[in-house]
Amino acid sequence: MKNKFAIILVCLIMVFSCNRKTNENLICISKVDLEICILDKWVIQKIPDYFLYVKLPRENDFFLINNFDNPDGDQMFFDYLTGTHERFFYSELNLLDYSIYEFVDDGFRYIYSTYDYYNNDEKVRYVSITFNFNHVFYDISIRMNADNSSEIEDQFRKLVIPSLKLKGKNMFDLRSEPDKITEISAEPLDSLLMK
Description:
- It comes from Algoriphagus boritolerans DSM 17298 = JCM 18970.
- This is Lipoprotein.
- With 195 residues, the protein is α+β, with helices and mostly antiparallel strands.
- The protein has a single domain (39-193), classed as Mog1/PsbP, alpha/beta/alpha sandwich (Protein Transport Mog1p, Chain A).
- It is 24% helix and 44% strand.
- The longest helix is centred in the first third of the chain and has 16 residues, at 2-17.
- The relative contact order is 0.15.
């Protein structure tokens, strides 16, 4: 009798948690084939240009997910990086530092990029994770004030990113080391750092 009750209880929990669930201070959101958990103090915004746009507590800070069909395969990584880098050539952005790493884990490839820059006297940290999955290109990014970024970036890396599931598959596992890590340099950005 106890086993039947436990099975029914587990089934009910699964049914009620499939679309939106809370775990500690996280809220998990399912949208199309994607599930991700964010902090409950982050506010989801309805902005049609983005798959998911979330306002963080500080005024200019945000978390977003962008995705689009990708018939170009791996070339999209480099095209997207080039587009990201072009914005640092605008006069209002002053690039301070950057790092770009390619990770490969069991055939899954993603690029983790971090950019520190000044924008209108505010020191900003911008982190972007890009990858392909089933012919769709994803960009998961967070923009935060660099002076207050350590806690938010830590939550992003340790809570939000590992919670990401696509079609029910966990995409990032912090318990195992990637098979391959490669640092990528961007000479046009290096020229900006020398200013």
